[in-house]
């Protein structure tokens, strides 16, 4: 297969970029894979991309580049195709509208895969006939504004498939009713760490993430005060930076935990830091997937996590390879942490179980799931095209959800203004 | 997802960093494994086109010193890469060391990029107290994204542990290496500079007794002493441990873990103290060299 990913900016840093690179790299073992980055502001990608994947851009934002596009008058005019309700709308323009449209009209691939809602809209509306259109949702439907949800519902029926990172989010998209669109949950992948797993001997609990409200590190710190009261020999490290840092620092001081709770600052790569711990903790009120949970498990740590929407409950098997606790309940979080702290054998057993269970997120296994999905979509597309041709020659009415959808999109293509 | 937990660091992860569009050679990255004795093993993911010779070496250069250089043999590691070992027995002067690879191919040594650092054996490092001289090396990533080492070489050494802060003062627990506390053991807080006294060359010193149990020590430093010397601005006080009457003083610091820069991570509350109609703040902190100090800061002082 020839697979073409469309991504906002492959030259930055972020979960979507990392997971797309992992997937593209794994798929490139057996397929022709390219990543098309709408924007480019740097010469080389910050995150490592495997050698088998081609990378190109559509709009050049490097000011010192001979092909710099920032002075194009179209660049200054607001986008018309990229939905206004999308979070990245401000970075899109008439120029991105035109370049993405041209790319999708001529794309050589068998499949195009969008990596965020606004790009999925482009793909649904502008991809040339015969190419399979796949949209990926890396966040969740319910994290989008009502305006964006409406925009997506109007356009997504022209996709062949939509993937989410959790079953819960897939169910939400199915409730949206997108006729003829296959909705599948495929989790993000996490590679095996490049160092030996944690040995569960260190008396450290480790957490990692943006210091943002949604991560509820205030709750974790309060829970850890209860842990310290019972087990003062255990300590907590929180990796990451963010706007909540000063507030968390003040809370640590207020609770007198400055010998037990440490704000470590950002770390890259994180796997070296997980390996220093014996338990991982996640206190979030919302996790669209739960990448850090899988990362910690791949390093052999049992994870104590809040059972928040959407990811943790689909990753952790409560009591087997980690613990799930109610959201917003520091007592329950402390209790679960202490149950692992006070049970060395149980902690080691859960850590080993986590290591085994997390192997299902290996890029090769996730790529195989995408490969199967893409293969089926491609087959269906070819079969439908044949059937469509047959129906047309007989002048018969088209029927069936897929065919109806194809016809609708063909009609829309006829009046396309872009 | 967790964007801000991951600052840019070229060459991280297991996929090699892409080469620049302008034809730069791809960066050479080194994975670093620490052992609990203070030794480090460097594994380089050498690209396949790199040929090395018998004279290949890992080169450590002390920042700020012209000639200070340590060369370690760089040979095959059996996994297709290159390996160099920095044993704990090789003394490295205190400071920041930049890490290069000289592949012996006639080209200038290449600056190494950080790969994976496995420093778990440093996290709760607790050497035998009788150790004569303590060597500590912690790999870290420089602001420009290169691999470097922080090094300390101390004997004796006074390692600070938990610090308890209250309104009256602070109590420090610790462990003494390479010396045993004897009669007359005490701690001296020395003002780094006190306005008005600089001219005479004398600096203010506050002395408090040391309690010891074997290698373990503790002391309480009431803030009243340093506060009494305050005459405006922000005043740092350095803390020294004198193991016995007449013994040379030992700087108190925190070195025995995997954190190269303690200042931001090991942070303590500063308590307000009313002084002569105004309010100053007093609290412990770690210096950029990870030594323990006390700051007495006036209301207008900016950290």
Automatic annotation (TrEMBL), chain A:
Keywords of this entry: Glycosyltransferase, Transferase
Molecular-function annotations in GO: glycosyltransferase activity
Keyword check for Transferase: yes
InterPro entries given in the database record: Glyco_trans_1 (IPR001296), Glyco_trans_4-like_N (IPR028098)
Domain Glycosyl transferase family: 201-354
Signal peptide bounds: none
Domain Glycosyltransferase subfamily 4-like N-terminal: 14-188
Domain of life, per lineage: Bacteria
Keyword Cell inner membrane: no
Protein name in UniProt: D-inositol 3-phosphate glycosyltransferase
UniProt source species: Streptomyces benahoarensis
């Amino acid at each position: 297969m020839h697979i073409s990913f469309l991504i906002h900016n492959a030259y930055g840093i972020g979960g979507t970029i990392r997971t797309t690179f992992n997937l593209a790299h794994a798929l490139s073992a057996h397929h022709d894979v390219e990543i098309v980055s709408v924007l480019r502001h740097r010469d080389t990608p910050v995150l490592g991309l495997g050698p088998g994947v081609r990378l190109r851009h559509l709009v050049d934002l490097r000011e010192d580049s001979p092909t710099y596009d920032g002075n194009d008058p179209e660049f200054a005019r607001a986008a018309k195709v990229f939905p206004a309700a999308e979070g990245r709308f401000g970075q899109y323009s008439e120029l991105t509208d035109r370049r993405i449209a041209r790319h999708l009209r001529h794309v050589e691939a068998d499949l195009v895969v969008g990596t965020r809602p606004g790009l999925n809209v482009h793909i649904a509306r502008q991809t040339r006939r015969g190419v399979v259109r796949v949209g990926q949702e890396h966040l969740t439907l319910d994290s989008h504004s009502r305006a964006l949800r409406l925009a997506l519902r109007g356009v997504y029926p022209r996709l062949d498939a939509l993937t989410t990172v959790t079953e819960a989010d897939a169910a939400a998209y199915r409730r949206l009713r997108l006729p003829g669109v296959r909705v599948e949950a495929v989790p993000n992948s996490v590679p095996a760490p490049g160092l030996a797993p944690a040995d569960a001997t260190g008396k450290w609990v480790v957490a990692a993430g943006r210091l943002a409200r949604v991560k509820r590190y205030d709750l974790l710190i309060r829970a850890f005060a209860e842990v310290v009261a019972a087990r003062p020999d255990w300590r907590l490290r929180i990796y990451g930076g963010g706007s909540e840092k000063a507030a968390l620092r003040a809370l640590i001081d207020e609770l007198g935990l400055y010998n037990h709770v440490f704000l470590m600052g950002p770390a890259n790569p994180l796997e070296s830091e997980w390996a220093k711990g014996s338990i991982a903790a996640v206190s979030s009120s919302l996790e669209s997937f739960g990448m850090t949970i899988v990362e910690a498990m791949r390093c052999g740590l049992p994870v104590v996590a809040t059972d928040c929407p959407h990811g943790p409950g689909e990753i952790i098997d409560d009591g087997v390879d980690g613990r799930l606790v109610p959201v917003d309940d520091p007592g329950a979080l402390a209790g679960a942490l202490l149950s692992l702290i006070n049970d060395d054998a149980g902690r080691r057993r859960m850590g080993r179980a986590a290591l085994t269970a997390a192997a299902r997120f290996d890029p090769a296994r996730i790529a195989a799931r995408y490969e199967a999905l893409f293969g089926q979509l491609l087959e269906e597309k070819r079969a439908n095209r044949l059937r469509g041709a047959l129906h047309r020659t007989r002048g018969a009415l088209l029927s069936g959800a897929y065919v109806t959808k194809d016809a609708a999109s063909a009609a829309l293509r006829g009046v396309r203004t872009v | 997802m967790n964007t801000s937990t991951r600052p840019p660091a070229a060459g991280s992860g297991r996929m090699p960093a892409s080469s620049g569009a302008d034809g730069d050679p791809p960066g050479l990255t080194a994975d670093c494994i620490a052992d609990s004795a203070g030794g480090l093993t460097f594994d380089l993911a050498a690209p396949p086109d790199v040929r090395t010779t018998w004279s290949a070496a890992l080169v450590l250069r002390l920042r700020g010193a012209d000639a200070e250089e340590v060369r370690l043999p760089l040979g095959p590691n059996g996994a297709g890469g290159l390996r160099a070992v920095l044993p704990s027995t090789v003394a490295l002067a205190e400071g920041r060391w930049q890490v290069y690879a000289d592949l012996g191919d006639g080209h200038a040594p290449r600056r190494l990029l950080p790969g994976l650092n496995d420093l778990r054996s440093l996290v709760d490092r607790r050497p035998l107290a009788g150790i004569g001289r303590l060597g500590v090396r912690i790999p870290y990533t420089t602001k420009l994204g290169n691999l470097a080492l922080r090094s300390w070489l101390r004997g004796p050494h006074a390692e600070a542990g938990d610090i308890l802060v209250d309104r009256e003062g602070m109590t420090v627990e610790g462990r003494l290496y390479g010396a045993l506390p004897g009669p007359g053991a005490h701690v001296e807080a020395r003002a780094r500079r006190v306005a008005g006294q600089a001219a005479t060359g004398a600096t203010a010193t506050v002395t408090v007794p040391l309690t010891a149990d074997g290698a373990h020590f503790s002391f309480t430093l009431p803030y009243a002493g340093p506060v009494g010397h305050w005459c405006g601005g922000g005043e740092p006080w350095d803390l020294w441990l004198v193991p016995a009457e007449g013994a040379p003083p030992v700087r108190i610091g925190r070195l025995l873990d995997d954190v190269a820069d303690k200042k931001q991570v090991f942070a303590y509350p500063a308590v307000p103290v009313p002084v002569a109609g105004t309010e100053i703040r007093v609290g412990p902190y770690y210096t950029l060299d990870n030594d323990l100090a006390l700051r007495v800061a006036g209301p207008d002082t900016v950290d």
